[in-house]
Write a structure and sequence with these properties.
By secondary structure, the protein is α+β, with helices and mostly antiparallel strands. The protein contains nine helices and 37 strands. The strands form seven sheets. The chain has an eight-stranded parallel β-barrel, surrounded by four helices. Strands 23, 25, 26, 28, 33, 34, 35 and 37 form an eight-stranded antiparallel beta sheet that branches. Strands 24-27-36-29-30-31-32 form a seven-stranded antiparallel beta sheet, with no helix packed on it. Helix 7 links the parallel strand 8 and strand 9. Helix 1 crosses helix 2, helix 3 packs parallel to helix 4 and helix 8 runs parallel beside helix 9. The longest helix is centred in the first third of the chain and has 19 residues. The chain starts with 13 loop residues before the first strand and ends with a strand.
């Protein structure tokens, strides 16, 4: 029995080539006598053989940007930090090396952590440069031309349903709207969309899916595949079994958070089965354990050949729902700070040593002492084995609940047969999640393992991941540490004076209902040519309960005392209105229950101060004498438990007592889905 141990060799910048491991790699001679005083390891053998054919085709590991606004803060990182983050996500043999990018087709509505703008706000409107998903797809393709792209709507602009909160009453309109997005991706960005979804986690319509296929084919998009239904395995699997036409047009059955299990009907369809949204877990080491476990067990238990994480990168204010549920964290563009979290390196164990189009081997995949393994081949003699031994409490995902199981230290002996019998050595990559000291070792290259007469053994501890592979292409790459974290600037101004903005939205503003875009106010000869404008004028077909008001938040959630100043312009006569606000305590899927201090002015000349976005808890009201289609300056001052407001520099109301919330963001917005403009925003 030979074993290699040693001390870690420090590697400076760039890529670590080889790190001598401290983990015992037993090879060639079987278990041997147990160590004195040590309990003998559970030992089991596993056969990897392709002589009787292969298992399912592997379709790749990916992540979701959107659903919603999860990449919002990423776009205004300064270089080189923004490119570094993108490299860690997409660059092959670098970091996560993602093989699939799924994006939200923006629908102007709240879709978890914010709204994403539609390419068609109105029926006669088309603009394929809004938002940031186009940019993100291009950046991903720039790094990995082979990456697969998926589009999926969470919501739709109101006109698609002709005012009804339902996208299937006029399926031809919905299909036209979705196909326009795919055509626009190609025409304006040279992006080929590979897969298209139906409606995220909501009902599907068989009639619509068939019409979507017809519309795709009519526009020469035969190569675009359809995923359905991005919800549960049923009822889509059953309906496909009894409707042969539907069966013919759905290429992939995508389920969300399947808990590594599938259902008989899904398997019986003979279709590809994907976990088309999974993970959604806080990105500490338990999140990494969750991710490691499901990446293997989605195939081992559920025949799923692709797993897609929500979300790609946590680039949204952390106090919004599901803070830091991304593969890495980049939520401070103002400082440049970001963090490459452990799920990035767990991803690399699979993605750096496989490609979509490889095949799984036909193995059971369950380890005798708990945990799992998968084996994949390119059919050309290459072999990659990924082993995980995640314990129950260190691999809980956010959902569904995880039944109890146990994992113990064990010795695994693998016999390689068929075309793998002649393999002599395997490269070894190793991660160990350390929940005692918090000193995890992630994606380290150990000494290769020798295969003797088609056989090798490995001592496996708990909470480990191993990759053993014939490929020599793996790299763990590192950039220098990014700048240290800093809070949002305590004195922040934006006059929106930018002639050709790189993105449609102003930096750091996180829209929670409605869409706020840069606007060129050509009719204004004065100081307000370049403004920020709320542009959604009809309630969208929503995914959750959007507010009845529009709102965009900004700043530091911990802010207590603040002064917010903004020029405002009400465009809607009679019953239009706008607000500025402080201590705003909510957003995302909970936006309807948002509280704070809201200073409203209305086109009828009145003002109000309310303790909530809904405007139900009135703290003060009166006459302001303002009018629509004219610029006015609002100032809101919050100190301790008192607030006051100024109009055009003169006191309008003061000494309003406020009890809670005690802290929160600054915000601006409108009374309803209406056009309005904002300029010279300043918070201190």
């Amino acid at each position: 029995q030979r074993s290699w141990t040693g001390t870690g060799i420090g590697i400076g910048m760039g890529c670590a080539a080889l790190l001598w491991g401290t983990v015992l790699l037993a090879c060639s001679c079987g278990p041997g006598p147990p160590r004195v005083g040590a309990a003998p390891l559970l030992a089991a053998t596993y056969v990897l053989d392709d002589a009787n054919g292969l298992g399912r085709e592997f379709d790749g590991i990916g992540a979701v940007s959107g659903g919603g606004a999860t990449s919002r803060l990423l776009v205004n990182y300064q270089e080189p930090y923004r490119s570094q983050i993108l490299d860690y996500l997409f660059k092959p043999n670098f970091g996560a090396s993602l093989q699939i990018l799924k994006v939200e087709i923006g629908g102007d509505a709240q879709s978890t952590d914010g709204t994403e703008p539609s390419h068609m706000h109105y029926e006669n409107d088309e603009n394929y440069f809004r938002g940031y998903e186009w940019w993100l797809m291009k950046e991903a393709k720039k790094r990995n031309p082979k990456i697969k792209l998926i589009g999926l709507p969470w919501a739709f602009p109101g006109w698609v349903g002709k005012g009804e909160n339902w996208p299937y009453d006029y399926p031809d309109i919905t299909a036209y709207y979705i196909v326009s997005w795919i055509l626009g991706a190609k025409q304006y960005h040279d992006l080929d969309i590979d897969y298209i979804g139906i409606w995220n986690e909501r009902a599907f319509s068989s009639k619509y899916i068939k019409l979507l296929r017809y519309t795709l084919d009519k526009h020469g998009l035969e190569q675009v595949r359809i995923i359905a239904s991005d919800r549960l395995w049923e009822p889509i699997s059953f309906v496909m079994m009894v409707d042969s036409e539907l069966h013919g047009v759905v290429d992939v059955i995508g389920a969300h958070y399947p808990g590594t299990k599938t259902v008989p009907n899904a398997v019986l369809t003979g279709k590809k089965l994907w976990s088309s949204e999974d993970y959604s877990t806080f990105n500490n080491d338990v999140g990494a354990g969750c991710w490691a476990r499901i990446l293997n067990q989605n195939y081992v238990n559920g025949n799923m050949t692709s797993t897609i994480a929500w979300n790609l990168v946590a680039s949204y204010y952390e106090e919004l729902p599901f803070g830091r549920c991304g593969l890495m964290t980049a939520q401070e563009p103002w400082s440049g700070h970001y963090k490459v979290e452990s799920p990035i390196w767990i991803t690399a164990h699979t993605t750096q040593f496989t490609q979509p189009g490889w095949s799984y081997l036909q193995v059971d995949g369950h380890l005798g002492g708990g945990g799992s393994f998968v084996a994949l081949t390119d059919g050309l003699g290459n072999l990659t084995i990924i082993i995980e031994t995640m314990s129950h409490n260190h691999s809980k995902c956010i959902r569904p609940p995880l039944p109890n199981f146990s994992v113990i230290p064990q010795r695994a002996t693998f016999y390689l047969g068929g075309s793998f019998y002649m393999v002599e050595t395997l490269q070894v990559w190793h991660s160990r999640l350390d929940f005692e000291s918090g000193n995890s070792s992630l994606f380290q290259q150990l000494h290769p393992v020798n295969v003797w007469q088609g056989r090798f053994s490995l001592d496996l501890n708990v909470d480990e991941v191993y990759t053993l592979t014939t490929l020599k292409t793996g790299w763990k790459c590192r950039y220098p540490e990014p700048p240290p974290p800093q809070p949002f600037p305590s004195n922040y101004k934006d006059d929106f004076n930018i002639r050709n903005p790189p993105f449609s939205e102003a930096p750091n503003f996180a829209d929670q209902t409605g869409v706020f875009e840069y606007f060129v106010n050509a009719s204004d000869p004065g100081d307000h040519v370049f403004t920020l404008r709320q542009v959604v004028v009809q309630r969208p077909i929503t995914w959750v309960s959007d507010a009845d008001q529009t709102i965009s938040v900004i700043g530091n959630f911990k802010w207590v005392n603040m002064t917010v100043t903004c020029d405002i312009y009400i465009e809607k006569p009679r019953d239009g209105g706008v607000f500025i606000a402080g201590r705003v305590d909510n957003g995302g899927i909970y936006v309807r229950r948002t509280k704070g201090v809201f200073f409203w002015v209305f086109a009828d000349g009145t003002y109000r101060v309310t303790a909530d976005l809904a405007g139900e808890k009135i703290l003060m009201k009166g006459l302001a004498g303002i009018r629509d289609n004219a610029w006015h300056t609002l100032t809101l001052n919050i100190q301790g438990n008192s607030a006051s407001g100024l109009l055009n520099g003169y006191p309008l109301w003061e000494n309003v007592t406020i009890s809670n919330p005690g802290n929160g963001w600054a915000a601006l917005g409108t009374r309803s889905f209406e056009l309005a403009q904002f300029d010279n925003f300043h918070v201190e």
